[in-house]
Amino acid sequence: MTRMKNMLYKQLQDAGLNENEAKIYVASLELGQTSVSRIAKKSGIKRTTVYLSLENLMQKGLISAIKKDGKAHYYAEDPRNLERIMAEKKERISKMIPELLAFTNLIDRKPGTRYFEGEEGIREVLMDTLNSAEQEILTMYSESYIYDFDEKFFSEYFIPERMKKKIFTRALLPDNEQMRAISALDEASFKKSRFIAEDLFKIKIEIMIYGKDKISIISFKEKFALIIESPVIFDSFKSIFETMWAGAK
Question: All domains of the chain, ordered by start, with CATH?
């Protein structure tokens, strides 16, 4: 139950709530119409913080309040309001994009390398690969994601989202039973795999070549990742991948 709640908290944060708001909203859903003190106890958050978070949640339309016996009682609104919040946020961002892109023309030098830490940072890098809709991702797989990362993120979110955006991927994998079993689902997930002998393919990181000039390098075990933006490096990595692809099974 705790694991499921932690996942739910993370998903609510992805939807735009902060950590305290996520915990308070879930506690309110569980408790129904209730007092601040009960919400504080259920969520494990100080009452003073609960008051502030409740105000924010009320502004977002996720919490409402009524007076009962002279005291304020709070209750969670329909979770489907989250869809409305996400739609409104997406619309606001869409309106800003043209103006933000106009500013990029004024930047003489853009950062060529970005560094990310922790599992959230790795998720951010993986999500960046999905910004290249209807293009191809070239991937050199590492088994490390199975043991050192949340594999459910791939099966329950990343792969369905990639498929929805019609992003095809070609993957190079070490040739073993586990990787063969994973590749059995390729045809249904816009993916094609080829295998390299396990004693030769000893890559402990995941490399993704995508977009027009991007390479992501992820170390699941060490919990950090890089995005490199460079046409020269992109072309070089792509050439390495295609050479390996041609010789793979």
Answer: 2-81 (1.10.10.10), 112-247 (3.30.870.10)
